[in-house]
TrEMBL record:
Source organism: Linum tenue
Recorded family membership: Belongs to the methyltransferase superfamily.
Protein name: S-adenosyl-L-methionine-dependent methyltransferase
Annotated TM spans: 16-37
GO MF annotation, one: methyltransferase activity
């Protein structure tokens, strides 16, 4: 009996220890399984390069979303290759000098040759590598957030050519103004901006093949203005107005307001052309005052004005009699300039966007040609083909200088030798006038007419009529 009592406490302690070992062993197994599961998800067993980012940096998927790590790696590798080539080139030059050490002191290398050697073999490669490193764009850190916010344009690190990077980088409007598109910047496009508007683009391409498209032209225009331009083709049927009537004959349509039933009004504030009158403060658009009042439009470019910046069509045509046949009206409006030129047997294509009103439909219903393009896009004309380019109401002082430079060079590309560039009522701040004048005069066009008048105390109007030189090769 005494031996049994003496053994009982020992047996009870042993059982407790055994159970503790079992429990601790189970916990170890659970912890091990959890660790293995985490490593598996992080890609450890599949050799995923993101494992360090997941396990050791604590960063989330937002780091890589929208930021091209592979492009960044390629850029750094390219810079390292350039530096390596430079080093090897310099080492070869030194070895050649060592081999010819006897004649080294006798060589009469001119300062010009020495200068060329430094420029081509040293300075140029170093500059290229320096620029490539300086152009690497990293995500901007938000100090109030644990994640990294991506504010750089997509694919920016995929290109090393500086001109491409300048082209695709969004051009902010001057002095923070909102442009006529309702945006704070303009995106020159090579398709890269679609990555910034993935949700809108997926919505645009979500349709039943062969059925009617949704009435979503405003979504399409939003994508275009945002830089996702040109848009992909779609395999659905475009909707038209339910009460569409045949347009007026060409002799009547030029200066006659189209019928209301020929326009889809769903996405406008107004539901008819009468509502678009300049007397209506809530018409839905702000640019091109009086564009839908045909009686006022008839007076433009044909009636003498008190301002010297208002050139007349007959004076412009007299500069090149019989030579102006086709041209481009790059601006915003309902096609009145093209209508006046058509009366003079000149065919004008008018750029248009439906910025609060059916500008594109109105131009077409008047029997004219609307070209539905944004400022982002390279003009779809071949080199040296246009006799005349006219612009009014679109290119103004809100525009970024670099953006304007790209646009002007595109105009110069399509304008034929001897063609005319007509800048009509361009306005800007008085202090910026010299900068814009330089932008226009850099092409060395012949000036036929040039006028600057005050618009307000701080702004001025500029109108110019210039001729492109031959530039024969």
């Amino acid at each position: 009996m005494g031996r049994f009592c003496f053994c009982f406490p020992k047996c009870r302690v042993a059982k407790i220890m055994a159970w503790l070992q079992i429990v601790l062993g189970g916990l170890v197994i659970l912890v091990s399984l959890a660790s293995l599961y985490k490593l598996y998800n992080a890609g450890f067993f599949l050799h995923n390069e993101d494992i360090c980012r997941h396990l050791y940096t604590g960063r989330t998927e937002s780091f890589s979303e929208g930021f091209d790590i592979r492009a960044l790696k390629d850029r750094v590798d390219e810079v390292l290759d350039q530096m390596s080539e430079l080093q090897q080139s310099l080492e070869r030059s030194v070895k050649q000098m060592d081999k010819a050490h006897q004649d080294l002191g006798k060589t009469t290398m001119s300062k010009l040759d020495h200068k060329r050697f430094l420029e081509q073999q040293v300075i140029k490669p170093l500059y290229s590598a320096h620029i490539a490193l300086r152009q690497i764009r990293f995500p901007n850190l938000d100090p109030n957030s644990s994640t990294i916010s991506i504010k750089e344009p997509p694919l920016i690190n995929a290109f090393i050519t500086e001109e491409i990077r300048k082209y695709i980088t969004p051009k902010e409007n001057r002095i923070g103004k909102m442009n006529i598109y309702g945006t704070k910047s303009v995106h020159n496009t090579i398709g890269h901006s679609c990555a910034l508007m993935k949700k809108e683009l997926e919505e645009y391409m979500d349709y039943d093949i062969g059925s009617y498209c949704k009435d979503d032209w405003n979504l399409a225009q939003k994508l275009m203005v945002g830089g996702c331009d040109p848009l992909p083709r779609r395999r659905c049927l475009t909707r038209a107005s339910k009460v569409y009537n045949k347009p007026f004959p060409i002799n009547d349509s030029l200066w006659r307001t189209p019928e209301d039933g020929n326009v889809r009004w769903n996405n406008y504030q107004c539901r008819n052309f009468a509502c678009l009158s300049s007397k209506n403060p809530k018409r839905g658009y702000s640019k091109c005052t009086g564009c839908f009042d045909m009686e006022k439009e008839k007076l433009k470019w044909v009636v003498n004005s008190s301002l010297p910046v208002d050139f007349l069509i007959r004076d412009v045509l007299a500069i090149k009699p019989g030579q102006l046949r086709i041209g481009l009206d790059f601006g915003i409006g309902t096609g009145s300039f093209a209508a006046r030129m058509r009366e003079q047997n000149v065919t004008i294509v008018s750029t248009s966007l439906n910025l609060g009103a059916p500008f594109s439909e109105t131009i077409a219903l008047r029997g004219l040609i609307p070209l539905y393009v944004t400022l982002n896009q390279r003009l779809p004309f071949f080199d040296n083909t246009m006799d005349l380019i006219h612009t009014t109401g679109l290119i103004d002082g809100w525009m970024d200088m670099l953006l304007l430079d790209f646009i002007l060079f595109d105009w110069d590309r399509i304008l034929r030798p001897g063609g005319l560039l007509w800048i009509d009522r361009f306005f800007c701040l008085r202090k910026d006038l010299d900068d814009y004048m330089y932008m226009l005069l850099q092409f060395r066009y012949k000036k036929h007419r040039w006028a600057v008048v005050p618009k307000s105390e701080s702004e001025v109007y500029l109108s110019a009529l210039m001729e492109k030189p031959p530039r024969a090769i």
